[in-house]
Design brief:
The complex is a heterodimer of chains A (176) and B (121). Chain A is α+β, with helices and mostly antiparallel strands and 176 residues long. Helices cover 28% and strands 35% of the residues of chain A. Chain B has a domain of 76 residues: Winged helix-like DNA-binding domain superfamily/Winged helix DNA-binding domain (Arc Repressor Mutant, subunit A, Orthogonal Bundle). Classes of the chains: A alpha+beta (176), B mainly alpha (121). At the A-B interface, strand 1, strand 2, helix 2, helix 3 and helix 4 of A face helix 1, helix 2 and helix 5 of B.
Chain lengths: 176, 121
């Protein structure tokens, strides 16, 4: 019915919003220009997932991506970064997989302090509102994630650089 | 991202480099405490704890208030700025990621259209 509008180029870019909703929760929202069916596919098929999960600006590459997308199934993502001596692994379990509407998984690389991530897909007028909700086990776990920068992805190498920096600062300012 | 962190947060990160100081921030996140409380909790001398709190205070991560002989510590203004900055970096990461997702979805939509046309023929 909307054939003309569909064929037009779509420069529309919707805003990504992120906020700390509570002591234990982070929420990121974004509208994607496509039906939930397709957006869900891009989250759950490894060959598609690989194409977008690691944006170029992160400077990282994805070495492998295993995803057994069903309740109880496991996933494992391995990344490399030129500044990191070791590949970085992220892994966990899918708790809930409801096609085209909801994905829930655990993040277990950090042990017990990892968050549970829930993504909902809500279609409206051919677009999909994504709501990504991270629930941490405690306020301290989220505070720590923020203090260490761990959740921002690929921040491991920052800590090595940080260590160097601290040595330098310690020497020059007597800190530490 | 790294440059930004270096320029803006050198002192904070130096303050955060120490495990005791990270513990102190975590403890203060749960409520204010006196230097004496902190020294006991982390099993160190008052002088040692004062030094740690001093580093955190210099970084703006902690502020202290002395009433009588008791110095009470709480999270400082910098801690909140840092959180806001972190959330903004986090948002930017997801923004970049979702831009890529938008591209993938666009390609899939185009592909479906082409496939759909083929099927109809």
């Amino acid at each position: 019915m909307d054939a003309r509008r569909e064929s037009e180029p779509t420069p529309m870019k919707t805003q990504t919003a992120a906020e700390r909703k509570s002591e234990r929760e982070l929420v990121v929202t974004r509208t994607i220009n496509g039906p939930a069916r397709i957006v869900f596919e891009a989250w759950t098929r490894p060959e598609l997932f690989k194409q977008w999960w690691v944006p170029k600006s992160m400077g990282m590459s994805m070495l492998s991506c295993e995803m057994d997308v069903r309740a109880g199934g496991r996933y494992r993502l391995v990344f490399s970064h030129p500044a990191a001596p070791q590949p970085m692994e992220f892994f966990g379990r899918y708790l809930e997989v409801t096609p085209h509407s909801r994905l829930v998984w655990t993040n277990e690389e950090g042990g017990d302090s990892g968050q549970v991530t829930t993504v909902t897909f809500e279609e409206k007028g051919g677009k999909t509102l994504l709501v990504m909700h991270d629930l941490y086990p405690s306020k301290e776990a989220l505070d720590d994630a923020i203090a260490s920068g761990s959740t921002a992805g690929g921040m491991g190498e920052q800590f090595e650089q940080l260590d160097e920096l601290i040595v330098t600062l310690g020497a020059s300012a007597g800190l530490g | 991202m790294v440059q930004y962190v270096r320029a803006g947060f050198d002192v904070s990160f130096a303050a955060l480099s120490d495990v005791t100081r990270r513990g102190v921030l975590e403890r203060l996140g749960r409520g204010d405490a006196s230097i004496t409380d902190l020294a006991e909790k982390f099993r160190m001398t008052l002088t040692g704890m004062k030094k740690h709190v001093g580093v955190l205070e210099q970084a703006g991560l902690v502020s202290t208030d002395k009433v009588g002989r008791v110095r009470t510590c709480k999270l400082g203004p910098r801690r909140l700025e840092e959180e806001a900055a972190w959330i903004e970096r986090y948002r930017q990461l997801w923004d970049a990621r979702f831009d890529e997702l938008d591209k993938v979805v666009e390609e899939l939509k185009q592909k479906e259209k082409v496939d759909g046309r083929k099927k109809r023929k």
